[in-house]
Amino acid sequence: MSRTKVVPLPVMGRHNINAYLLLSRRPVIVDAGTPGSGRKIYEQVAAHGVDPADVSLIVITHGHIDHFGSAAELHRLTGAPVAGHIADLGPYRTGRAREPYLPTGPMGRLMARNENLHVQVEPFEPDVLVTGETGLEDFGIAARIMPTPGHTAGSISVLTDQGDLVAGDLIANSLFGLVRGRPANPPFHDDPLHNLASLRKMLALNPTSLHVGHGTPLEPDRVRRWADREHQRLTRLEAAGRLPARTENNTA
Fold this sequence. Notes:
Layout: E1 5-12, E2 17-23, E3 28-30, H1 38-47, E4 57-59, H2 65-68, H3 71-78, E5 82-85, H4 89-94, H5 106-111, E6 128-130, E7 134-135, E8 143-147, E9 156-160, E10 164-168, E11 172-173, H6 174-177, E12 179-184, H7 192-203, E13 209-212, H8 220-239
Parallel strand pairs: 3-4, 4-5, 5-6, 10-13
Antiparallel strand pairs: 1-2, 2-3, 7-8, 8-9, 9-10, 11-12
Helix pairs in contact: 1-3, 7-8
């Protein structure tokens, strides 16, 4: 099977919110952006010389509306089935992210006040329900869906056989993608320690690059150093009883 090319599809700004086009024997889209961005993604796919009707699969990395907001629209436009993890089925079926959002820092606390994060979007029912590691060869691409829970319970990433990791919000660029190449938490995590464990699990597979939902690609060794510092920070917060994580009591 031919080498997979990872092409960013900007949804907001140049790098603030990204979807991705994976080009191999057949094209695959990863993430569907904010509500109302389906047509924009569709047109970018076509601009790369791909007939959107040839898209074999749309993979949604997790149940936040900047990633699944246009999943139903993009499904209608392309006719491609949509894949999502069973643990985020609630948001997909209701069109609402689990609330309250749990900020990872000042940026998240500021963004949590944005009313656009709390709207209901068009729901969808995944055609491919992910429950574990899932090969994508049947969809024309040498890659695997990898469960990477923590950001949300049903967060997933896509790892190509060449080592490109399309990581959703497992990690981000600093300031919601504004500071290129600097690893940082995205604005929210449901379970920071679980997310960090998922990140380290993916890093142990020696990816060549991390393609993220917010910002430009990240270099793995720089992410490893960041992850070591983040482990120390989270350990201190946990010891002080100040580490937020989603529980049954704070799940809307």
